[in-house]
């Protein structure tokens, strides 16, 4: 198959890094073919590559972090489950007529502890993404998630959710099947569950589609993940009728992990390997596993009532506003 039109697996701002790495590989290959020792030059170029990578990833803008969060090679829910757990058994169906592949879930053993894990699942390529509906869950997906969470609560197993979706499916059939009701039901019911609920945004956390499995005692995000009430493209289209202003919208929406930590919404930021989670998935999975085990130890030390009260107060405190003249608000949006 021809590869001339295949989309490159690197982001626009990564091109200098890719070019430098290709240059290093080319010099190494030519040196091997001609029996020349260029180890000193290679070492200098690799040091320059590491320095450049630190410079690039140390100063990413909000929209660039959004690109990293959407990277096609970024580890998915099933990648983390397979890397972190034992005895994984996926459970299917909402017991109301369907099984949504955009949300996966089941039981597993995490360091010997039985847990229920569920999360959004995107695809690796176009065919897989179509089958997974690009991680956009249907009402049946959220009902399946709630069924699994009720199972966890019944048997005293902690709940771990992985969030990675541009938003809930917004098709006509989704509305007909009760998308809003399904998400709202999950929001209400997750507050009453007795077991610990730990939520991690592993990629893109979009709108109510993320919140449908995002009510928990402890919220973590990877440093290059995003969490937003609406995608920057949608926000720009609404405010300025120009999706091309997505970068401006991304800054205004405060979608990054650091923004959300400063706003008091996020409990913990998880570091990623230099170059993003996709550059070293196994290291990323180990970071996530250690953070989950650490958080669960704290949550399990609390009584069910204390956890429910803490969960309620956590979400009651979200949201800040300032009063000011309408003219200044209009100016800030224009």
What does this 3D model show about the protein?
- With 334 residues, this protein is α/β, with parallel strands linked by helices.
- 49% of the residues lie in helices and 15% in strands.
- It has 15 helices and 8 strands.
- It has helices at 15-34, 39-58, 62-69, 77-84, 126-131, 139-154, 172-176, 179-190, 207-211, 232-240, 246-253, 257-262, 281-300, 304-316, 326-333, and strands at residues 86-90, 103-110, 113-120, 159-165, 197-206, 218-222, 226-228, 268-270.
- Strands 1, 2, 3, 4, 5, 6, 7 and 8 form an 8-stranded mixed sheet that branches.
- Helix 9 links the parallel strand 5 and strand 6.
- The longest helix is centred in the first third of the chain and has 20 residues, at 15-34.
- The chain is globular.
- 37% of the residues are buried.
- The model is unreliable at 1-7 (pLDDT under 50).
- Acetyl-CoA carboxylase is a heterohexamer composed of biotin carboxyl carrier protein (AccB), biotin carboxylase (AccC) and two subunits each of ACCase subunit alpha (AccA) and ACCase subunit beta (AccD).
- Residues 28-55 form a coiled coil.
- One of its GO terms (molecular function) is acetyl-CoA carboxylase activity.
């Amino acid at each position: 198959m021809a590869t001339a039109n295949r989309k490159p697996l690197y982001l626009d701002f990564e091109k200098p890094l890719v070019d430098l790495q290709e240059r290093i590989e080319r010099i190494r290959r030519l040196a091997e073919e001609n029996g020349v020792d260029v180890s000193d030059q290679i070492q200098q170029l690799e040091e320059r590559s590491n320095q450049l990578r630190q410079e690039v990833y140390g100063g990413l803008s909000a929209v660039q972090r959004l690109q990293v969060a959407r990277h096609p090679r970024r580890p998915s829910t099933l990648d983390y489950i397979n890397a972190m757990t034992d005895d994984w058994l996926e459970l299917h169906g909402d017991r109301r007529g369907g099984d949504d592949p955009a949300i996966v879930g089941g039981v597993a053993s995490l360091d010997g502890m039985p847990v229920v894990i569920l999360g959004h699942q995107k695809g690796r390529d176009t065919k897989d993404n179509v089958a997974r509906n690009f991680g956009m869950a249907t009402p049946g997906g959220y009902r399946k998630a709630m069924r699994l969470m009720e199972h966890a609560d019944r048997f005293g197993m902690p709940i771990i959710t992985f969030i990675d979706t541009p938003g809930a499916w917004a098709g006509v059939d989704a509305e007909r099947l009760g998308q809003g009701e399904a998400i709202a039901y999950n929001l209400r019911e997750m507050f009453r569950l007795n077991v610990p609920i730990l939520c991690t945004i592993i990629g893109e956390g979009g709108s109510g589609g993320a919140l449908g499995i995002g009510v928990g005692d402890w919220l973590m995000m990877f440093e290059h993940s995003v969490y937003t009430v609406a995608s920057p493209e949608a926000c720009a289209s609404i405010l300025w009728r120009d999706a091309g202003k997505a970068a401006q919208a991304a800054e205004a929406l405060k979608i990054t992990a650091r923004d959300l930590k400063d706003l008091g919404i996020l409990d913990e930021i998880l570091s990623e390997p230099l170059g993003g989670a996709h550059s070293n998935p196994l290291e990323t999975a180990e970071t996530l596993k250690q953070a989950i085990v650490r958080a669960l130890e704290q949550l399990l030390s609390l009584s069910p009532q204390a956890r429910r009260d803490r969960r309620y107060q956590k979400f009651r405190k979200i949201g800040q506003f300032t009063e000011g003249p309408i003219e200044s608000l209009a100016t800030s949006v224009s």
